[in-house]
């Protein structure tokens, strides 16, 4: 049997295949709803807890399917941008609260005003917390899921061996860092200044605050090239050179856990999460850890880290379930269970989960001083670059720009004079905020 | 109706065109569309986070061309590409010639050499980072053990060492591909040519110069051009290992483009960087083709 292919047969075949393909797509069930939920809790304890909560919420809301994707913190902003370009935005995301502003300005975020009202108003949350981490342009942009403040975590045993008290001032901290260095076994104060993370900003900014400075105003006016920032930079550089160790520019922020657990650093600036993880992974090291507020030059200051629930115009167009699930997660008993998944890692954001119910956890009780220092620091902590009140719309782009990390590397590795390096960084920040200002005006 | 009939008649006579249409459409979608979109984006202020884009003419190109970081990254790209490809080629060629002489164990050895290709870039990058880590790394530990260094060396975060080390890692990763390809080419050379040469009194080096190299030259030429394109455009390996640092010691053009677009949100300018990259790569390939045009295999 012979078969000759001609134009008519070819086109008929193509038409039939197309009809079959279209016809085989099942009709969309109208009752089915989906929810895409992103979070940056990569540790199994927190990720498993959220899956359990999603299963509970699904069971209470027949027809709803919640898909959860977790990813490391530094990649969330980039992945959000890529998802936006590809029409695959999540419906609900948990990420650093300052991410909310660019999302709001680009029209991708739905304000959380109604959700706050449903939960009982701003008084449902810890005092002033919403003003500090959510309030922008007359709206509450997100709901705080947990917060933490940066403190100085140090090794009690090494300070005691050096005959030193916990460092209160920069001078104390430098002395302690040098005295607790024993190269190549361990180093006094290892920063994490890799180019792939924002470890430089996270240290230089609070240090500058303690010297009475800051990076930029909430209107985008850059005042980075200033005496307080210069002094803080010089202090950091001196610590790196005298007690930082050879790996400073290789480490990203998450590697702080390994540095502490392996005993490679005697002090570091981070949240109480370091003690929380050590309590589980390196109990002997954890017993030697304690915390104190960030060493200051002139005044006490620190940086607030706040994970926030944000409802987006996601690919499933399902803000009802996204908002409902966000409120579900913040119900006191469930929220407290979450805060205790890794005790001491997360601090309460609501009134109902604060106080004795939070401190009653055995691990938190054991490290009560670390918890108390953190809670005290939380009272005056501000978000990155938000020292003049509210949230700064330019903070997230500056944080992810790596301008500060580059500047520190130039000073330490290329011996660029501090003044020149700060001047260059000021110019780069001004260019960046200038571009964003034009965008926000549009 | 008449036009449709004449079109149908034309397609009856040239059926091959119908078969070419799906492939052509796919090519247009996956190649032409991104290319044209990139050209358009490079003339706008397209941003990663904010919607909309305004036409800004050649502003992105002006900023890019007058940015000293671009030229520094271009220099790094050339060093990274040329050193890596040259190293891979030499090592691959030597390895293939050596392996061609052996009969026993050639296959298992060939298999072992291509193992690195089975791993994703992130595994290789993090393995090397860990090996070379200044505090935990086994390299420093061993070197200190044998007394070659007194204190740990931050291999990947010392500006003078970072690029040479990245090139060495890339040679390690890329030479087996060259080796396997060259070995395949060597097996295609007729044995009679060598027998005739030996009867005429030719030695090993004469055989290599007058028979082996000319006959595998077409393969070498293709390998060099393909690897140059791959290595020049490589982003993940450098980004995952050094992030382009320390400072900008390993910032190649793809990493620079990423920093502009994804860390500083300026997609319009990132698009202009990629156009400049394309021109530089085109220039490099044109130089190769010009240099290699006279080296032809004997008929």
TrEMBL record, chain A:
Family, per entry: Belongs to the bacterial solute-binding protein 1 family.
- State if Membrane is listed as a keyword: no
Q: Where in the cell is it found?
A: Periplasm
Mainly resides where?
periplasm
**What are the alphabetically sorted keywords of the record?**
Periplasm
Entry-linked SUPFAM superfamilies: Periplasmic binding protein-like II
A UniProt-annotated Pfam family: SBP_bac_1
- In which organism is this protein found? Faunimonas pinastri
Protein name stated in the entry: Carbohydrate ABC transporter substrate-binding protein, CUT1 family
Automatic annotation (TrEMBL), chain B:
- Nucleotide-binding in keyword set: no
Q: Where does this one sit in the cell?
A: Cell membrane
Please provide the Gene Ontology terms (biological process) for this protein. Answer: transmembrane transport
Q: What Gene3D superfamilies does the database record attribute to this sequence?
A: MetI-like
Specify the ABC transmembrane type-1 domain's residue ranges.
74-289
Among InterPro entries, the record links this protein to: MetI-like, MetI-like_sf
> Where do transmembrane segments lie in this chain?
15-41, 78-99, 111-128, 134-153, 165-191, 211-230, 237-258, 270-291
Indicate how the chain sits in the lipid bilayer. Answer: Multi-pass membrane protein
Give GO cellular component annotations, separated by semicolons: plasma membrane
Q: Which UniProt keywords apply?
A: Cell membrane, Membrane, Transmembrane, Transmembrane helix, Transport
Family label: Belongs to the binding-protein-dependent transport system permease family.
This protein is called Carbohydrate ABC transporter membrane protein 1, CUT1 family
